[in-house]
Write a structure and sequence with these properties.
Number of strands of chain B: 0
Structural class of chain B: mainly alpha
Order of helices and strands of chain B: HHHHHHHHH
Pfam families (chain A): Pkinase (PF00069)
Strand content of chain B: under 5%
InterPro entries (chain A): CDK, Kinase-like_dom_sf, Prot_kinase_dom, Protein_kinase_ATP_BS, Tyr_kinase_AS
Shape of chain A: globular
Number of domains of chain A: 2
Number of helices of chain B: 9
Distance between the termini of chain A: 46 Å
Strand content of chain A: 15-25%
Oligomer: heterodimer
Protein name (chain A): Cyclin-dependent kinase 2 homolog
GO molecular function (chain A): ATP binding; protein serine/threonine kinase activity
CATH topology of the largest domain in chain A: Transferase(Phosphotransferase), domain 1
Helix content of chain B: 55-70%
Subunit structure (chain A): May form a complex composed of at least the catalytic subunit CRK2 and a cyclin.
Largest sheet of chain B: none
Largest sheet of chain A: 6 strands, antiparallel
CATH superfamily of the largest domain in chain A: Transferase(Phosphotransferase) domain 1
Distance between the termini of chain B: 15 Å
């Protein structure tokens, strides 16, 4: 192999990455690694005026495994994420600008976003009206539609992973857990999706699941937007399940075919399903209907993305607002 | 039966795959040729690399479509770099290792490296019995390091675009749906 990589040097102590991106500050941290705000200085010298607008990007540095022996070249989940982001170009999916590799860690350059949905959701100063919620949910469904059309399940749909741009456009990010679901019959892991957004079939340990798990997460987000908090906030797997069943009713063979055959199936004290109109007083029938359709326990009875987009809730007045009308001023 | 399998492709129109830049036109002159390598020699190098990948894939119990993705990565790489500058065998090893990750059939780097060493000894006509490389030995460590840096370098050259859709994947799927026999699959493959 040729061994001439003059650009390689230590990171993140150096402010400059591959001679092009200048690090400004750290803006986020997660299980995957950390995110930095960078400035693109490639054209700075050639720019005619010194005041030309600066270009900013976000760089995601993928974390290395703690054990040195466990290093398996470029991380497999990183490759997955790069693969998916390169393939999909959509308004509601975060665009990947550049990828590079320095000293065993991979860096992904992406568009810089203003905020994420969780900040909007949990903010105490912002009022979310029905048009706002319609706008947010529609954007989530458009993104999901594009993913499912390409045979991809996101598998980690939470408000933290839905970024919002300056203009209020919602973008999906963090595809480290996503995978293709078409045409291979290999079992899937149950260790996916943040617990509070996890679908009941995963909690019951199903080895084969489909895009319906994303729909359930979207349902949890819609509930969260109405509640301005987390809809199902369990402390552990069992608690999470009992919280879901408290509202949706306990599953049985009649309501969910094949549930008793799932690997981790446990019986719960029987509770009847509750109406969302009692839980959320003041919401109209269509919204309750949509919420119910998203959170159905049986994955085969859950709505598909198409059905969600064409749901009567979105056709009724008041119409969904434009993305740039979302209340973005108070959050940074 | 084979014809039927091929026309099924039309029904998969909604599957968005980017096939525009998948194959190089025949007129492309490879960099090895530009550097003065004869066509015959280059063919031999490519054949050697592909054989290595195939043998390695069989020993690692990889499905055939993963092996063919590995070969594609290997060939693509040598349309960017010459055989004279980059070692062909370690590139083959790295190509297969990348393919295992892209195709979601992960194998441990340790296994890939040790098997690679074994296959290389077989292909070079090593005296039998062939010694298996010891895990943790100095030659293992250096080969491991080489494989990782080769992988990194390959990724850089290929610009991280590794989405390769081989026809074989679809072929196997169609034959499975049509409940074809092993003979049909063999015939369709070649």
């Amino acid at each position: 192999m040729e061994k001439n990589n003059p650009e390689e040097f230590k990171v993140p102590f150096s402010p400059l990455l591959i001679g092009r991106y200048k690090m400004i500050k750290k803006i986020g941290k997660g299980s995957y690694g950390s995110v930095y705000k960078v400035e693109d200085i490639k054209d700075r010298k050639t720019a005619t005026t010194p005041d030309s607008p600066k270009k900013y990007f976000a760089v995601k540095k993928m974390k290395l495994p703690a054990n040195r022996l466990k290093i398996q070249g470029i991380d497999f989940t990183t490759l997955r994420e790069i693969n998916i982001l390169q393939e999909i170009k959509h308004e509601n999916i975060i665009p990947l600008v550049d990828v590079f590799h320095i000293n065993r860690s991979t860096f992904m350059v992406m568009e810089l976003m203003k905020s994420d949905l969780s900040k909007l959701m949990f903010s105490r100063t912002i009022t979310l009206t029905i048009p706002h919620i319609k706008c947010i949910m529609l954007q989530i469904f458009y993104g999901l539609k594009e993913l499912h059309k390409n045979w991809i399940i996101h598998r980690d749909l939470t408000p933290n992973n839905l970024l919002i741009s300056e203009d209020g456009v919602l973008k999906f990010s963090d595809f480290g857990l996503s995978r293709f679901f078409a045409s291979n019959n290999r079992p899937m892991t149950q260790n996916v999706v943040t617990l509070h957004y996890r679908a009941p079939e995963i909690l019951f340990g199903a080895n084969y699941y489909g895009p319906q798990i994303d729909i359930f997460s979207a349902g949890c987000i819609l509930g969260g937007l109405l509640l301005r908090g987390t809809l199902f906030c369990g402390r552990n797997d069992i608690d999470q399940m009992s919280q879901i069943f408290k509202i949706m009713g306990t599953p049985s063979e009649e309501t969910w075919e094949g549930v008793t055959n799932l690997p981790h199936y446990v019986e719960f004290e029987e509770t009847p399903p509750q109406s969302f109109r009692i839980l959320f007083p003041g919401i109209d029938e269509d919204l309750a209907n949509l919420l119910e359709g998203l959170l159905v326990l049986d994955p085969n009875k859950r709505l598909t993305v198409e059905q969600c987009i064409n749901h009567p809730f979105f056709n009724k007045s008041p119409d969904s607002c434009d993305p740039d009308e979302l209340p973005m001023d108070d959050i940074s | 039966e084979i014809n039927e399998a091929l026309t099924l492709d039309k029904y998969l129109d909604h599957v968005a795959t980017d096939l525009d830049n998948q194959y190089f036109p025949l007129s492309v002159v490879s960099p090895s040729e530009l550097a003065g390598m004869s066509k015959e020699d280059e063919r031999k190098c490519r054949l050697y690399g592909a054989t290595l990948i195939q043998q390695l894939g069989i020993l690692l119990r990889l499905p055939q479509d993963t092996i063919s993705v590995g070969c594609s990565i290997f060939h693509r790489f040598y349309y960017k770099k010459t055989f004279m500058k980059c070692d062909c065998s370690i590139a083959a090893c790295a190509a297969l290792f990348i393919a295992t990750k892209v195709e979601e059939q992960p194998r441990k780097l340790r296994d890939v490296v040790i098997t690679f060493d074994y296959v290389k000894k077989i292909l070079s006509g090593h005296e039998r019995p062939i010694p298996v490389m010891l895990y943790g030995s100095s030659s293992f460590t250096s080969l491991n390091k080489d494989a990782v840096s080769a992988e990194k370098y390959m990724m850089k050259v290929l610009g991280f675009s590794l989405k390769i859709d081989t026809a074989y994947k679809y072929l196997c799927e169609y034959i499975r749906i049509l409940q074809g026999t092993g003979r049909l699959r063999q015939k369709a493959w070649n």
